[in-house]
Amino acid sequence: MLLEVKNLKSYFFLDEGVLKAVDDLSFSIADQETVALVGESGCGKTIVALSLLNLMPSPGRIVDGQMFFDGTDLRTMDTEQIRRIRGRHIGLVFQEPGVALNPVYTVGQQIADVLRLHRALTRQEAKVAAIQLLGNVGIGNPEQRFNAYPFELSGGMQQRVLIATAIAGRPKLLIADEPTTALDATVQAEILDLLRYLKAEYRMAMLLITHDIGVVAEMADRVMVMYTGKIVEVADTDTLLRDPRHPYTQGLLRSALQLGTGKGELLQGIPGTVPDFMELPQGCTFHPRCTIAGQECMHAFPPIEEFASGRECACYKVT
Amino acid sequence: MARSVFKRGLSSWLAIIPGLGHLALGERIKGAHLLAYTVAIVLLVIWRMDRVMHTFSSRAIDEWVAVLFLMGSLLVAAEYSRRDVKRLLARGDTPVTSNGPWQIAARRFRVNKLAVGSVYIILLLYILAILAPLVAPQNPSMMDNILETRYLPPSFSHLFGTDEFGRDLFSRALYGARVSLSIGLLAMLLSKTIGTIYGAIAAYFGGIVDSVLMRLVDVVIAFPIFYLMLLLVGIFEANILLLVLILGLTSWPGTARYIRGEILSLKEQEFAESARAIGLPPHLIIFRHLIPSALSPVLVSAALSVAGMIGAEAGLSFLGLGIRPPVPSWGNMVSGGQDALLVAWWVAFFPGALLTLTLVSFSLLADGLRDALDPKALMRKLV
User: Fold this and answer.
1) DSSP state of A101
2) What ipTM was predicted for this assembly?
3) d(CA A217, CA A235)
4) Which residues of A touch B276 (CB under 8 A)?
5) A102–B293: do the CB atoms touch at under 8 Å?
6) N or C end of chain B, less CB within 10 A?
7) B98 contacts on A by Cβ (under 8 Å)
8) Which tens digits make up the pLDDT trace of A43-83?
9) Domain total for chain A?
10) Containing structural domain, residue A311
């Protein structure tokens, strides 16, 4: 296993109380595997990514858990060691390329910076490598684009540049946090193609964070569904799409537009809204919105259990 | 085509003399500046050949500085000119305009003629100050025939007249410029450097580091600086270094507070977070990503600060607490002339006028910088 996360707990300590953004999360990613982390906005997906790189914004911090990357626990590393992991072993692609690039440097400089940092290249070598990398992420005229400032590029090109900075250190794991959310549909498809190509080319594993079932279907080997800071279902992409078990996953899939949805047919949403993290329901946090909830769901959150090979689900009603 | 080949050969040959290569390539403004500077320096060398030669057998540091500056600047101009012509030739006929933040600011700055004019005045004053030993008509402390030469009004032989000891005021004003201008510049650099780094470190690391560092700032701000200055110049003989240290080390807290505020907000922005995610070490994040984005208002206040420092030095010297005669500074020259104001107005007038000119120039420069660096300013008449 390339990455093995056990019982990760990342909490925010607010004046009003403790917000459990990621609560007792365990998962693993194999070498060169693409795993999708799916859930509604605000369910704690991004906090998982930030926790992995120890970039939790204050007043949040990791409270407990282990994160083994290549056999070593990231949580036992000091700030200097974890800094060497960032960008070099784990790359991170942000959601909004427009603000994740520094506006006062050319895109070439920003890529060259990473190259010089992680691969100990000279200024000249870094420039050559950066131009090559720009070409690799599908930017035409890389020699000229090297000197372009971020605002001179379109959103799709900015995202390509951001991806180039994330893979410049040749990481083994690429975390893509909603990489296509800020882009329009055609550009989305191009960026997904690019990510797939780079993943194969650089032999990377990928943690893809998204709320878009379409993206999941296209990219992921395995899917983890997240609700209020916990993983509620894990399965192969095909299995999960064909046969979702957890009532939340079923609701999620029903609410997505599918080929064959007839004209005039309404999409079914999940009743209710995502609960406030500060006032989570007792027991299974999904039970107030669940159609099949029973008495047992009111008292304790169901443990996540493997009910078939490679399939895990956290629900009392699924066996 | 034939003409172009001819032009290429010609301009690379002409580039040996700074400016000519640019002129041949049609870069008129750059060429004219390089050429004018070169010609002026060469003429100065020819005019003051005896002094230049004398320098080589002299031990006076200021003369060496002047001669080295002279030669160094010529070499720099020649080398820059050679490289730039090479670059222009390699580039071909398509002009490339860069859209970097500094290039945009430079374009906006050039629109403001007053600010551009003040840059010329400031540069001229600084160059004259460095070259004072070569340019000054007389030794600034020379007094002979006091009875015949004291209080001579301005004339061709004494452009600014003479003072009560018969010293040439033009020469004294040039030497005084060195004191005033260098104190202003160095004290500003010291103060802004300390303030910027200090504020950035406090903001970036935050928490307890921030609290401790900023309480120290409160202490420095609360300290009665003026009395400290009086005390220090009372104990030690005031010299340029001491004044730079006093002025620089007491004026940085404002900058530190400002930079801290800016960086507190900048470091939460996503480009700072992505710099962390890439694995950049803290010093690179601070110096390459955070400080440059917070710097433009500091540049504006730096220009004003030079004026403030020069004014402070002049004030101290006027009160007799700064640089003491016979070493001239604009402040003590004004002070020396105040008794004779009714008999010989020129003694106080010229240093006072130079002081005013300098302060106004820096203020106009600051104005121009503010307009050019403010991204929200109206894009009027640009590019």
Assistant:
1) S
2) 0.83
3) 12
4) 55, 86
5) yes
6) N
7) 147
8) 888 899 999 999 888 888 999 999 999 888 998 899 889 99
9) 1
10) 221-254+267-319
Q: Is the pTM of this model over 0.80?
A: yes
Q: Tell me how many degrees the CA angle A59-A60-A66 measures, rounded to the nearest 5.
A: 150
From first to last of the 383 residues of chain B, give the pLDDT tens digit.
Answer: 445 666 667 766 776 788 888 887 778 888 888 899 999 998 988 888 888 888 888 778 888 888 899 899 989 988 888 888 888 877 765 656 667 778 888 888 888 899 999 999 999 999 999 988 888 787 777 777 777 777 777 878 777 877 777 788 888 889 889 888 999 999 999 999 999 999 999 999 988 999 999 999 999 888 887 788 788 877 887 788 888 998 898 889 999 999 999 999 998 888 898 899 888 999 999 998 999 888 888 999 999 999 999 988 888 888 878 887 778 888 888 888 888 888 888 888 888 999 999 999 999 999 899 888 876 655 544 44
**Interface with chain B: mutation pick from A61, A78, A102, A178, highest number of B CBs within 10 Å:** A102
Residue A78, in any domain of the structure: no
Residue A104 has its nearest CB partner, among B101, B206, B278, at: B101
* Residue A230 domain flag: yes
B320 CB contacts (<8 Å, ≥6 apart)?
B332, B335
DSSP per-residue letters across B12-72: HHHTTSTTHHHHHTT-HHHHHHHHHHHHHHHHHHHHTHHHHHHHTT---HHHHHHHHHHHH
CA-to-CA distance for A160 and A97, rounded, in angstroms?
Answer: 9
Is residue A146 a contact partner of residue A135, using CB atoms and an 8 Å limit?
no
CB contact under 8 A, B279 and A92: no
Quote the pLDDT of residue B212.
95
Residue B383: predicted pLDDT: 42
Distance from CA of B289 to the nearest CA of A (A): 7
Radius of gyration over every alpha carbon of chain B, rounded to an integer in angstroms: 25
Output the CATH code of domain B146-373.
1.10.3720.10
Domain borders along chain B are 2-96, 146-373
A44 located within any domain: no
Tokens 């960026």, residue located: A191
CB proximity list for A24: less than 8 A, separation 6 or greater: A7, A8, A9, A65, A230
Cβ separation of B277 and A53 shorter than 8 Å?
yes
**Angstrom distance (rounded) from CA B239 to CA B262:** 36
3-class SS of residue A282: coil
Contact list in A for residue B279 (CB cut-off 8 A) is: 83-88, 114, 117-118, 169
- In-domain check, residue A139: no
Which amino acid belongs to residue A33? E
Question: Is B268 in Cβ contact with A83 (below 8 Å)?
Answer: no
DSSP-derived 3-state class of residue A171: coil
Give residue ranges of B with CB < 8 Å to any A CB.
98-101, 206, 268-271, 273-281, 284, 288-289, 292-293
Question: Is the Cβ pair A102, B275 closer than 8 Å?
Answer: yes
